[in-house]
Write the structure tokens for this entry.
Amino acid sequence: MTRPYLPLNALRAFEASARLRSFTRAGDELNVTQAAVSHQVKLLEQRLGVVLFKRLPRGLMITAEGEALLPVLGDAFDRMAEMLGRLEGGQVREIMMVGAVGTFAVGWLLPRLAEFQARHPLIDIRLSTHNNRVDMAAEGLDFAIRFGDGAWYGCEAEPLFEAPLSPLCTPRVAATLSTPADLMQHTLLRSYRENEWPSWFAAAGIPHPPPLVRGITFDSSLAMMEAATQGAGVALAPPRMFERQLATGNIVQPFATTTSLGRYWLTRQISRAPSAAMATFRDWLQDVVHQAYGEAA
């Protein structure tokens, strides 16, 4: 399709004026005079046959037509600026969209991302978090890191490592715990996976604990651990994801017993061919996991 002539100077003048609500401030940004900006906007209005601004004594009021045009231009100029930035210096920067379970992102990935950026400065990671429910296509993700059994429809899943669960609590609460049965006297914080505490009690030699009737249900281990840190109860969470809190002594693991109900996986859509940046990130992640936990992780 043949594109019509685009009056870029006029479009840029309008976009800056509409965003800043001022010809003068737009001129300062574009390094031209206020009169030059006003003239370019006037030319654009004449070309389109619409009024984009109502000129007021103390500024500009954008019209409905201008409001419709502004977000389209803003997005286009942002995308052009981003691409120019990626090409700057004769080297192409790649952007990779990664979604990760919040617990994994904060407790494991973020402390290691500086190393990845140092080794691969031309790959920019855009990291978002989720609570294990994610639509990769709708969110435009290259990768999603999830917890479970690796079975997600339409996705290729590569195992990373297990994250066994164990009770975590404040030292004050831990001082009241001599045996796993003592946990029955405390509020047990839990996730939406109802089988976690029963599985842990079974591993600890208590196969038929009473039903959990007290406590708060969380959709995030991060929120659960914050509640435990504030003394609201005992969390059942993966110690590997909270190594920094354990190192400070604010949180302790009163029992060595753990239970494993899944692992973390690196997933991508089968229909999404991996880019060079994706292959680099995948290899780096698997290498870091191997160094940290070995092949048996």
Remarks:
- The mean pLDDT is 89.
- The domain at 8-89 is CATH 1.10.10.10 (Arc Repressor Mutant, subunit A).
- Residues 274 and 282 are 10 Å apart (CA to CA).
